[in-house]
Structure formats: structure tokens, C-alpha cells
Amino acid sequence: MSSEEELREEVFNLLWVFNGLTYSDIVEMSPQDRQWLRKRAGREMRKELKGKVTIWG
Questions:
Q1: Using CB atoms within 10 A as the burial measure, which of 11, 32, 48, 52 is most buried?
Q2: Is the distance from CB of 49 to CB of 57 less than 8 angstroms?
Q3: Distance CA 41, CA 1 (A)
């Protein structure tokens, strides 16, 4: 597994933990709901982490 794949997996894990969901909750969601969740969780995590973490791209 490449470091990029590991990072993607770690972020995905954080998304559902951050939102209080289980893996099965996410698996059962429609693709539109998953996409909305990813966007929403991403925004929330950025707010939470702002100023605490530097992400190099």
C-alpha cells in the first residue's frame, strides 16, 4: 500500500469516527449521502484542525 493510499484510508477512518458513524452505516448509505458526508466531514475537520496541523501537499 502506498503512503497516499494509507493516508486516504486513515482520513476515511477519521471521517466516520468524527461523525459517530460505524462502517456499516457508511456502507449502507447511498453514493450521494456518502459524498455529502465526505464534504461535510472534511469541512468540520478543517475547522477543528485549523492552526494545529500543517498538511503538505
A1: 11
A2: no
A3: 24
Which residue is it, cell 466531514? Answer: 41
501537499: which residue's cell?
57
Place of cell 462502517: 23
How far apart are alpha carbons 29 and 36 in whole angstroms? Answer: 10
Q: Is the pTM of this model over 0.70?
A: no
Q: Cell 468540520 maps to which residue?
A: 44
> What is d(CA 50, CA 39) in angstroms, rounded to the nearest whole number?
16
pLDDT in tens, 6-42: 777 777 777 767 667 777 877 888 888 888 877 887 7
